[in-house]
Fold this protein.
Amino acid sequence: MKVIVLGAAGAMAAVAIRDLLQFAENVSVTAGDARPDKLLDLPLRPVRLDVQDELSTARLIEGHDVVVNCVPYPLNPNVMRAALRARVPYVDLGGLYHVTLQQFALHEEFLRQGVTAILGMGSTPGITNVMAGALAQLMDCVDEIHVRVACHDESATIHLPIPYSLDTLLDEFALEPIVFRNGQAVTVPALSGSEIVEFPAPVGRTEAFYTLHSEVAMFPRSFPGLREASFKIAFPQAFSQRMRFLVGLGFAARGNGLRGVSPREMLLALAAKQPVPVSESGLQDCDVLRVWAKGRKQGKEISGLAEAVILPHPVWKIAAGSLDTGVPLSIVAQMLARRVIQTSGVHCPETSVPRELFWDELSRRGIRATFKFQ
């Protein structure tokens, strides 16, 4: 199995690569990054990557069984077009709604070329989408799907623990979210929709709010007739306050600021040097992924709830927020490489990932989901 991981020096890519090396049989991994020197201590083939150059990226991808895209999400269409040119199956971590819509526009080209692309295969989007598909399969018609996610970290009061890409987090805190209401996409104010949600321990009762997310773009495409869809996330209060403060100061702005310096790039560079806080008992974070769906079965209303509680990996010493993002990406990449998934076109996880096999593979890594219907 020949896998190429792009953006391989990133934190989420590191988890996917570790999973590939441990669980994929006869795997060789090519690691593409703008900083290949950061990959020299891993059993990989490091190569220099410039995703702005579609032709050179396509040449790197050629000959592999799958391309795993971990570059910053605004560049997803660039990598997709390179994968299409190389005719290699593609999977990524999501496009934060608007980029996801741009990626959907490539569906017909992927269909004509006989190439498969799976969008948003991390935790959320990703695991949450497969949860939604599992709930929907028991319904004749799906009316509503709502995602509620909690990122909990006991070190949040003294550090700025970053649960996933800070670049993406800045956009989630700054950009206006989209919700699906009465069959229409509607824009709402950033961080609005405050809701107190009772999550399982160790999270407990906490505030969730709207942020821009890919699921709201995906679910209406996957489930015709859907009337309502939303995404809300809960962070530790101290973390949310600090992120709001940084966004308010202008650190989410793209482009150059005073004296030609980009506030966002400066913040990202400083955050990259921040040590990961670890207590005496180890990593202290936790993710909770919850999906609720309502629909009809044989004319009767039915609803279902799916939930997963993810803790740090006790052996790998990987935080929960990284574990549940990188692991599902690796699992689906392996499915694509082995041609377990081979339907051409651009697809969402809820309609394309074999659910039972996916849950079995997650269970092997200590991640499990529960389902309840009524």
